[in-house]
Amino acid sequence: MTAIPYDKDTASELIANHGARPELLVQILHSVLEHFTWIPEAAIRQLAEELNLSRADVHGVVSFYHDFRTTPPGKHVVRICQAEACQAMGSRELSAYAESTLGLKMHETTEDLTLEPVYCLGNCACSPAVMVDGDTYGRVDKKRFDDILDAMKGTD
Ligand code: FES
């Protein structure tokens, strides 16, 4: 995943696409995230200005939702579901395995990799679920996790 340099005009367009409505802040943040791959401080300032909100309001929403990363992601993004159904099927153990295998804690990023928790990928029937570079995988045990990571490295 390549972080796109922040650009005020593009951000303005994204905001305008939602009618610059402050009640749509979450949806606008998703659009900003989708486009730039992260939400820089400049975006928070601009959103506050253009939506007539305080910076604290925007910060509050950004920090409330785990999806809104505020640092650029690594080349690959590995997300492991931590919500209830996946927890019941071993996602905590899988997360611990991922952290030790990758040498990264949750929310950490290297140039190559970002490891993130996620709270439901809509794949609860196939828990535990993992998303790698936007692709969702179900029933992921340690062996399958290793296979997915090997396939991911094969795309470099
Ligand atoms: S709880 Fe993990 S995919 Fe829904």
Question: Can you walk me through this structure?
Answer:
This protein is α+β, with helices and mostly antiparallel strands and about 160 residues long. The chain contains 7 helices and 4 strands, in the order ααααβααβββα. The protein has helices at about 10-15, 25-35, 40-50, 55-65, 85-90, 90-100, 140-155; strands at about 75-80, 115-120, 130, 135. The protein has a 4-stranded mixed β-sheet, covered by helices on one side. Helix 1 crosses helix 3 (about 40-50) and helix 3 (about 40-50) crosses helix 4. The N and C termini lie close together (about 10 Å). The relative contact order is 0.13. FE2/S2 (inorganic) cluster (FES) binds near residues 120, 123, 127 and 129. FE2/S2 (inorganic) cluster binds next to helix 5.
List keywords for this structure.
binds FE2/S2 (inorganic) cluster, 156 residues, four-stranded mixed beta sheet, alpha+beta, 47% helix, 4 strands, single chain
Secondary structure topology:
Layout lengths: L7 H10 L7 H12 L4 H11 L3 H10 L11 E6 L2 H5 L2 H12 L10 E6 L11 E3 L2 E3 L4 H13 L2
Parallel strand pairs: 1-2
Antiparallel strand pairs: 1-3, 3-4
Helix pairs in contact: 1-3, 3-4
The structure holds FE2/S2 (inorganic) cluster.
FE2/S2 (inorganic) cluster binds next to helix 5.
Give the terminus-to-terminus CA distance. 11 Å
| Helix-and-strand structural type | alpha+beta
Sketch the major β-sheet.
4 strands, mixed
Secondary-structure element sequence? HHHHEHHEEEH
Mean pLDDT: 94
What is the molecular shape?
elongated
What low-confidence regions span 5 or more consecutive residues with pLDDT below 50?
none
Tell me the helix content: 40-55%
Overall radius of gyration: 17 Å
Oligomer: single chain
Bound molecules: FE2/S2 (inorganic) cluster
Range of strand content: 5-15%
- How many helices? The count is 7
Output the strand order for the largest sheet.
Answer: 2-1-3-4
Beta strands, count: 4
